[in-house]
Structure formats: structure tokens, C-alpha cells
User: Fold these one by one.
Assistant:
Number 1:
Amino acid sequence: MRQEHHWQRRAFLLLSASVMAILVGIGWLLHPWWLITHSPLVSQLTTSSPHFASSSGQDSRFKDLHLTGGFTVGTPAEVAEAAALGIQVVFEYGDPPSPESELGRALQAAHMQVIDGYISSYLQYYECHRTKTVKPPPPGAHPYCGRDSVPIASEEALLQLVRRHLEETQSNPLILGYWVLDDWVLWDPGSARELLIKFHELIQQYTPQRPAICGFGASPPTGFDTGWHDEVAANFTAEGCDLIGLYIFTVLQAREDASASRYDWSMRSTLNAMFTSLQKRGWNYAQTPVIGIAQAFGGPSTRAGLSWPLPSTADIVQQSQSFCQHGATGIAYYGWDANLYSSQTQTPANNHAIQEGIRQGIAACQHIWTTAEQGTPLTVD
């Protein structure tokens, strides 16, 4: 009897241990951190070099990160639509969603992540106040911002806000990286450069696994106009930017003149000019990879009589393909929402031709990524 009881007790203990192991395993599978960290994008990061390039001259750990993104995808319905088009990453300017929020749950269900753009918003507020007080626009130039709604009066105050944001979001598993620089005024070139280095130092302190992404904007070329201003590149710093995002969009114009056919959507002259300007400031493709950001919107804005030219499916595909042929390891699309969008603005949320352009554009880039080695950006004449 004693020996039989011993074996029964042992069998019961083994069964209990097995059940506990299964329950723990299910718990990990359902936990958002497991879901996010086992996504294809994070797998690319963790299988890359474990060190950041920074100013060391080494290749970037992000050079093989094939990112497909969409800007301002802000609702669960839009998340599902974007995922169906092939979008993996959402760029958000506001506070990033928590895993427990409705949007956060939708992102997890779609195995999508977030590029947190809140730091770039803080920098925009800082520059808005600066151009109202220290560096006002020259005669004839448009103000950088309409009103100084969130005055950040000093560099110290800005850095404190960035530090606080990083402290609050460092444990958020949805965040893949940070968008730290966006539009900048031409009459104040390079004034964000040292700040970007300090932002990067703070990011390394709190979340060293997440890249800092610096954005630089231009317009697609028309005739002899490349649509690019050399001064925009003055903010670039290899010590502050792990990746760069090149966004090339048409500008607002009179509705009767808003024709997409006026533009060269291959962007050859624009990209070559951007690369030349960035290289003069120390940019190296292998050290600081590129995300191309294509225009996926158009039509009437909230400003009376003004519209954006509306790119066709073929225009969006050509823009996407050209970015990736010129060495971009990521492609993203702007965007689902913006301040100047009206009810008539055409976006990925309401225009089938735009949706198809995104779908085909992503496929074109994925074909380039899987069939050709990534080298330095091509110079296409």
C-alpha cells in the first residue's frame, strides 16, 4: 500500500507540474510583450548587430530592417484596413497608445507596432516659441506656426519634457522607435542639431533598443526645380539620428493647378539633391539607413480654394519603387489623417486607388529587398 500511494502521489505531482507549465506558457503567449517581441520586425532587430553605429563608423543595426509604415492610423478600423494593405508600423504624433487601450489592443491583434512621434511634437512646440521670440521669420516669409499654443521657453525645459516622456513610455511594448524631427524653417537652419544629439543620449539611457528617426522633407520635382532646400539638411547628425525618413509631398496650391501630372514621381533629381546635402553633413547610408515616405493623399484641404495634387495608383507605386531602388530599407505612407484634411481630402481611408497604390508599392519594395543586395543609394540620372 505505501509503495502504491508513493507512485500515485508522484503521478499527481507530475500532472500538476505539467498543467502549471502549460498555463504559464499560455500566459506568455497572451501577454502583449511576447506578442510584440515575437513580431517579424523585432526579430529583425534582435538578429542584427547588437551595437548601435552612432559615430563609430560601423554599419547600423537597422540597415536590414524592412519596415512598412503608415502615418496617423488612429482608430481600430483604420488599423485593420492598414494591416490588410501590408502596413506593419504606425507613426503617431500624439501620445502612443497603451497596450490596454482600444487602439493598443487592435495593434496587438494585427501584430503592428508604433513609431512614437511625441518627441518631434515637443521639438515643434519649442521651435514655434523660438520663432516667435528669438528667430522671427524674415520679411515676406510665412510664420512657422499660427499661435504659440505650447510655449517651451528653454532647451532645459524641452529636455525635461523629453526625459519625462521616455520615463513614462519606456515599458510600453508597442513602441518600436521614436520620430524625433519633422518640419523645420529655412531661416533657422541647423538649430535642432545639438538637441537631436541630446535626445539620442536620453533615448540610449532609457530605451537603447529603440532608434531615433529624423525626418527631412521635400517636394517631388517639377521641371528644373528639385523641390529640395539644402538648408533642411543642416539638422542632420550621425550622433543624433539612427535612421532618416525622407518625406516627399506636393504642396498646397490653387485647385485648378493641382495636377499630379506636373510632377516626376520617380523623384530622381530630388533624391540625388537630398543625398548630396546630407552627405555634406556626414551622412553615410550604411551607418544611417533610409525610410522613404510616399504621398498617399490629395485633394481639397481646409484652406479655401487650395488642394494637394492627388497621386494616382501608378504615381504611388513609382514613388515607392524609386525610394527602394535608391536604397531605402523602409517604406511608409502619409497618411490617414492630418490637421489640414477636409471631408473631401482623399486618403488611404476613403480612396481605393490610393489603397491599391500602397499595396502595390509595398509589394514593389519587398521584391527589391528580397532580390537585390542593399548597398549605397543608387545615383540615377
Number 2:
Amino acid sequence: MILALLSSVMLSHAQASQTVTFASGEWEPYQGEALDAGGPAAKVVSEAFASQGWTVKYQYLPWARGLEETKATGLDGTFLYSYNAERNKDFIYSEPVIELETVVFYWNERPLSWKNPEDLKGKTLGAVVAYEYGFVTEEAGYKLDRVGVPENNYRKLQAGRVDGVMEEIQVGLSLARAVGVADSMSYDPQPIKAVPYHLIVSRAHPQAQAIIDTFNAGLEHLKSTGRLNEILYQ
């Protein structure tokens, strides 16, 4: 009886109407300040919470800063992030929002293909600060040239300062178009990472579990009504 009462109180608390503020980075075509409603990922977040009576506000910040402010509970959460064990120490993950593939882009005049992880060692790979690239890590002996502004990776690729750039397929194509080098680039179709992406909340946040539970309930509502696919793949 006591457990049932506690569960009822927790559920009521999770569903109580309130406003939360999330960090969002620039990651077109999925999220970004200039995109309609902040992009499809932000639409999912907004509509999932709205279905539970919550309101979402956004702060558009560089990825590393948004992650740090979320960790320190200055913001209520951030998205989209893939899972890794190190980040899991500080953050709670929602149910998956979308699954995406990260590949290696290369300059057409300097092709880069790989079959085994070892093939990428000895290459300088463009990466973004605070991003995680599966098995490709500095600790494992890979050479990553990290930047704070993702577009700069493609300028470095054009100049020959990196051998390849690691990025999600649609994001990479969007960034290449923004820099004006899309026609000079290709990518190896073999993904270095194919994983789900999530909304995350700091474990130190006093309402961490309530935020995650509310979002998960809203996400399930979007799935059951077909709205999730409509937003992400329209």
C-alpha cells in the first residue's frame, strides 16, 4: 500500500506542469537555432513534453558549454547525445530518440577508405570538442583534431590539414553545403558508429528522474500516434 502511494505521488510529480530549459547545439538538419522550431529533434523534445503538460525553452550554446552547464544543473538537460560509459557517470539518458550513423568524409582528390579500425590509425581525423566517436578515441591511439565550430573541420579538410572528418551523414552533408565544398567531398559508407541518440539530464539535478520519466512518457505518446516518425522523417 505504501509503495503504491509512493508510486502515485512520483507519477503525479513527474506529470506536474512546469517549464524546463534545455541546451541545444548546432547540428543541422536535426537541431539548430535557425531551423524551424529549432529543428526536428527540438520538435520531438517540445512535443513530447507538451503531451505531458510541460513547456520547454532552449538555449543555443556550443556543445561543450551546453554539456558543462547541464552537468552543473544550470540547465535542465541537453540533446542529442549518444551513450558512453564515461558520460553515464554524470548523466541519466532518456529512451532513444533516433538512431544515426557517423561516417568518415574525405576530399575527393584525397580518397580515404577503411575496412578495419586499424586502417584509420595514422590518419588525422577532424572531430568536434565533446563529441564521442565510438572506437575512434585519443586513448586508443587515434589522432583527432578537435574544433569547437564543426564547419571548420571542412575548411581544414579542403586545405589538407586533416585526412578525413567524422560526422553523422546528414549533418556532414549539411555542413559541407554550408561551407561550399559539398561537390568536392564524399564519404566512406561504412559507419564508425551507428547508435541511438538521447536527451540527457545531470544526475545531480534534483528533478532528474522526473524530467526523464516525463520525456519518456511523452516520447512513447509520439511513437504510438505515429507523430515521432512524422517529425523525424517528413
Number 3:
Amino acid sequence: MKGLIKGSIAAALLVMTSSLAIAADGKIVASDNAIMQHEDPAMPTRVIKEGTKINMHFGDTVILGILNDSYTAKALIDRLPITVRVNRYSHDFCGVMDDPLPYHEEDEHFGWLNGDIDFATDGNYFTILFEDEEKSEIYGSQINIGVIACPLKKISDLSGSYEVLIELAK
């Protein structure tokens, strides 16, 4: 029991210390207030337990996703089905949306967590980020709208450009 109490206190102090460090420089990052898992690095870091399930069709490969209940995610859901042309880059698939998603400035943050589905406000980018979360905080203008619901390798193994159909999962 003592170990459990000490562990709980240590966890609380870690959370408070992290919050204070973020507050000191005013920078909001992707991990703030996120539910995360670190047990399985093959899976997305962010955990969304409930949300709107989607399918993203990369040719014959279907990537499952879960959208959160943010203002921006709800705007995307209202537009589904939608097609976005994306290209593979070093740590993501990214494409410019013809009709930008609305967002609240207070939802913007720096960086991402591996597996995140984000809307980048600085270029109206729809992005699926699958690696480099540890050095991602140099990138701002991110709004998390969801997470993929499959191993990261399923998307990181893809290459090239795609007309991605995004639709509600049945």
C-alpha cells in the first residue's frame, strides 16, 4: 500500500511539474491533457476511447481512425465523405484542404503524438502523423482532431501520393 501511495504522489508531482514548465513559457504542446499510452510503441501514443470512427482509404489500404469531439473534428465530420490529396513526407501524410476547417485559436498547440490526425492551421493541412513526436514541438499551428486506430507501421509503410477518401466507418 505504501508503494501505491508513493507512486501516486510521484505521478501527481510529475504532472504538476510538467504543467508548471509548460505554463512558464506559455507553450501548449500535444501531450497537454492527452490520455497517452507508452506500453506499445507500435501503436499510436494518444488514446481516444470514444469518438467518431472513420475509414481513410489509401488506395487498397484502409486506415481506421477515431475523431475526437473538438469543434474542428465536428466540422470535418459534417463534411464526410470527403477526399483529400495527400503526400508522404518524413513523418506524416499531409495534404492541403480546399475548404479549410474552422478552429478556435485556443485549440492550437505545438507538436504531435505519433498516430495523431491533425489539422495544421498555417497551411490548411490535413495530416496523419506517424513518427518523430519526440522532436515535433518545433512545429506550431496544430489542432488535434483524432488518432489512427491501427499500428503505426500500417501507414508508415505506405509511400507516394493518394486521393484519400475519408468516410464514416460503418
Number 4:
Amino acid sequence: MNTQLKRKIAFALLMGIVTTGIISFTLLALNIGLSGEFIRKWLRSWALAYIIVIPAILLVGPRLQALVDRTIGKEG
């Protein structure tokens, strides 16, 4: 596996952790409040969101990048 592919995968994994954590925390806090079971529900929601978003980032991301490159153009 080449370095560029490793970097893209690492980025997807880290971006997935950050974005799903922020979004799941915010939406759960707004919808159920910071109740006694909040942390348990949040961690469950976060894990499920992460499982869903990583394949989406890895599969959809390159297609979206290609669309942006065609629409706006590549630098360089």
C-alpha cells in the first residue's frame, strides 16, 4: 500500500471519529438532554455512526473529490 493511500485512509478514520463524535453528541444532547444515561447512549450512537460513516467516506469521498476536481479544477 502506498503512502498516499495510507494517508487518505488515516485521514478518513480520524475525520470519522471527530465528526461523528461532535454530531452525535450535539444531536443527542438536543434531543434527550444531558440525562443520567447520556454517556451510554452517546457512546452507542457514536459507535454506530462511525461504523456507517467510514465506508461512506472511503467509498463516496473519492467520487466527490473527482467531482470537485472536474468542477473547480485541480491545483498544480
